[in-house]
Specification:
- The chain is an alpha+beta fold.
- Strands 6-5-4-9-8-7 form a 6-stranded antiparallel β-sheet, with helices on both faces. Strands 1-3-2 form a 3-stranded antiparallel β-sheet.
- The protein is elongated, with a radius of gyration of 24 Å.
């Protein structure tokens, strides 16, 4: 990499830092003057940023301003903070109150992925990074039931295409039936033995609900996992906790907007 390339990259960040300080549109000449860089160099960089969608240019005022795409680049950082603060606190509350394993799940292509796990006092554990098929999990059906029918079917067909599921064992009609059921519920309770290919303990179950996410954040769901008999006994308590957590997380978003 040439020194010129490094210098250009540095100047791009200086431009963005200048906008962060002033928080208002700027003319090319004003930017170059404040930064102490040649007008020709700043002009070339700004035009490149406009072409890439990271800068807006107003033909009337001849002023530049960072595009929304710049904010989007770092949006995941705040979202990660959200998962490691408010959501993680809710997970600990769940585990300590009901004594079962707790998972945080999101969607990843055709899969449901557990991105955080807290092991309960029992023997059943789910490792972080574990994946399940969206079309073969209660939490997955909750997610798909809140998307369009077309998107849900697209996930299903891709699952078949990748050989993760046979159409003969779980048809499109079966999927639509499951989605219709889950459209009517905020909380899913699914026993492992109800699935075609149980990957968990045969007597296990998962109780889950979708939780609020910040704008632009990946979708999230909380799940409580344990022996089906144990979860059935605690079902009302878990449902009440889910309701309180969803309300609390939703309120936190509203107050920060």
């Amino acid at each position: 990499m040439s020194r010129h390339s490094v210098k250009s990259a540095e100047r791009v960040f200086r431009i963005l830092e200048d906008f962060a300080r002033t928080r208002e549109p700027a003319r090319l000449s004003d930017l170059a003057r404040r930064l102490g860089h040649p007008v020709s160099s700043v002009n070339a960089l700004l035009k490149c940023m406009v072409d890439l969608g990271y800068m807006e240019f107003d033909d009337t005022s001849h002023r530049y301003y960072p595009a929304a795409r710049v904010a989007h680049l770092g949006s995941w950082l705040n979202c990660q903070d959200y998962e490691q603060t408010a959501v993680l606190e809710a997970m600990y509350l769940l585990r300590e109150t009901v004594g079962e394993s707790v998972v945080l799940a999101t969607t990843n292509d055709i899969y449901l992925e557990y991105v955080e796990t807290l092991h309960g006092h029992g023997g059943i554990k789910i490792l972080r990074g574990t994946r399940r098929l969206l079309v073969q999990s209660g939490t997955g059906w909750l997610f798909l039931a809140r998307s369009s029918i077309a998107d849900a079917i697209s996930v299903y067909l891709r699952t078949i295409e990748l050989g993760e599921l046979e159409q003969a064992e779980f048809s499109e009609a079966d999927l639509l039936h499951r989605l219709a059921e889950h459209r009517k519920m905020d909380i899913s309770f699914l026993r492992a033995r109800e699935l075609l290919r149980p990957t968990a303990h045969w007597d296990a179950a998962m109780m889950s609900t979708i939780i609020p996410s910040p704008p632009g954040h990946r979708p999230l769901a909380l799940g409580v996992h344990g022996l089906a008999e144990s979860l059935a006994e605690k079902r009302d308590k878990i449902a009440d906790l889910f309701g309180s957590i969803v309300k609390s997380l939703g309120g936190a978003h509203a107050s920060s907007d």
